[in-house]
Amino acid sequence: MKISQEKVRRILMSVVGVILTGFCVGGLQKASLGVDPFTCFVTGIAHLFHSTYSFFYIIITACLLLFALFIRKQYLGLATVLNLFLTGVSADISYQLLDKLMGQPGILLRIILMVFSIIAMCFSASLYFTADLGVSGYDAVSLILANRFTFIPFRYWRIFTDSLCVLVGFSFAVNIGLGTVITAFFMGPFIQFFTTYIAEPLRYKVKKKQIVVN
């Protein structure tokens, strides 16, 4: 069966978006100035039960995927599977590469790396959101809320969920850094910006041309 150019474009957007997200996670880890809100949340829950991050990451992610499956399963798809298997690997590779290249970077270089990683993470999220081939369990929550309560834009729901995650993590003795604060309050608006001005034009490029010609 022949795959349309638009479908190929969507698949590529999903793959690039997921892998780039993993590389950005590795960048934030290397910058060591605060993790993203969901990592903060999972770490806080793990602290509460005196368990490991990896154990509760699986449990919490599985619960979120079940939630999305019953509420709005169209948010689950290829990118959801890619997130499970590629994000962690990409993060490990990214961290190892940066560790070899940078060694122990100074504070200025760490800040630059943090800012770049956050912006690139927002861009990568906009790619696989717009590709509409599935998102991660955590990403699905704010998308579902924005779809159900349309009077509040997605970017504000993202700020809400990110802030809630940071609050839970902080309540259970997770160290909050500059990167955590920035991702909690600015990821939503940045994702919306990249979606509007880059991701959506990229996905609908062929379709828009066809409309103009017809």
Describe this structure in words.
With 214 residues, the chain is mainly alpha-helical. 81% of the residues lie in helices and 0% in strands. The protein has 9 helices and no strands. Helix 1 (5-31) packs antiparallel against helix 8 and helix 5 (107-131) runs parallel beside helix 8. The longest helix has 27 residues, at 5-31. The radius of gyration is 18 Å and the shape is globular. The protein starts with a helix and ends with a helix.
Span of the ends, CA to CA: 27 Å
Q: How many H/I helices?
A: 9
Radius of gyration: 18 Å
What's the total count of β strands?
A: 0
- Shape, per Cα inertia axes: globular
Weakly predicted, low-confidence segments:
206-214
Largest sheet: none
Helix-strand makeup class: mainly alpha
**Strand coverage percent:** under 5%
Could you give the order of the helices and strands? Answer: HHHHHHHHH
SSE blueprint and pairings:
Elements: H1 5-31, H2 37-48, H3 53-72, H4 78-102, H5 107-131, H6 137-148, H7 154-171, H8 178-203, H9 205-213
Helix pairs in contact: 1-4, 1-5, 1-8, 2-3, 2-7, 3-6, 5-8, 6-7, 7-8, 8-9
